[in-house]
Amino acid sequence: xxxxxxxxxxxxxxxxxxxxxxxxxxxxxxxxxxxxxxxxxxxxxxxxxxxxxxxxxxxxxxxxxxxxxxxxxxxxxxxxxxxxxxxxxxxxxxxxxxxxxxxxxxxxxxxxxxxxxxxxxxxxxxxxxxxxxxxxxxxxxxxxxxxxxxxxxxxxxxxxxxxxxxxxxxxxxxxxxxxxxxxxxxxxxxxxxxxxxxxxxxxxxxxxxxxxxxxxxxxxxxxxxxxxxxxxxxxxxxxxxxxxxxxxxxxxxxxxxxxxxxxxxxxxxxxxxxxxxxxxxxxxxxxxxxxxxx
Length: 294
Prior knowledge:
By secondary structure, the protein is mainly α. The protein has helices at residues 2-28, 30-33, 38-78, 89-98, 127-149, 156-176, 192-205, 207-210, 233-242, 258-270, 289-293; strands at 110-115, 118-121, 226-227, 285-286. The chain is built from 11 helices and 4 strands, in the order ααααββααααβααβα. The longest helix has 41 residues, at 38-78. Residues 193-272 form the Cytochrome c domain.
């Protein structure tokens, strides 16, 4: 009984340490914990509770094992017998996997062969190895049937051919919806649908820096003939696609599809010469259409 009380006290101390540890950590590392959102905190809390339950269960199991052993010793003494401890569940499970013969029983599996005083034991393969061998045979049969007999699953060569066919189909689809546009084939379009789409993209993403009419704000004026990074359609598209990180313009190629960048490039072209009120002073170098053709 005294031992039992000692174990319970020890369990209480462990629980107290487990509970106060995270609290003291949170107090000393409050700035770090504050960065975690509610979901992350809940996940951490659940994991901590699970760990606590496992530790408590392991501790209680240890206590029960000790109590059972002490009770067995007491009963054996009362009967005047020697106490023989029962093997644990883990020991039984391990023995069932290995099939090892105890050293004290090895004389039962000694073979008649004698090589200069060296004798051989008739040990069989461990059960786990035998089970794995059988599992490999079953897997091989299933694999052979699925891949080589019925053709249910494709072989590596067939997988490659399927992947290439899908890539070609995706490429054709991209070309059909305009996503194959790049600096090498882009052209200004006067199609009202393209201009309307480009205006929508511009109003959603460009107005904050270039203003609604393109007169310029944080970013440069888009309605005059002066350009910081080139005024040809290829250069404008490239600027939109790759951005100007050192001046705060993000690479829109990571956000917009090529077709959308094509549309907004054409829309920006329509802003040229509109001379909106409050337009920003020219910046960059003068660009003319004539200079592009020469």
